[in-house]
Write the structure tokens for this entry.
Amino acid sequence: MSACNDYGLKIHDDIALVSLALSPTWPDYKNCSGVNELLHNVGALAVDTLVAHTPKNERGTPSQRRVHMLEGKWNPGKTMRHRH
């Protein structure tokens, strides 16, 4: 945000600022527009995946890659204009 100020740009008026990896631990989280990745869900999925491999005595890198997709949550914030 400070880089925008250095160029005389006002966030929301002159430029939109959107994060694709927001975290509620950020000091200005509620004001930032973007996607909250819901990292607690990512951690829970990682633990579930590891626990599922334990009874089968599976170790190391799986022979076939698996992709897990978790949906984030949009945080409207105040750093972009909202369409009505």
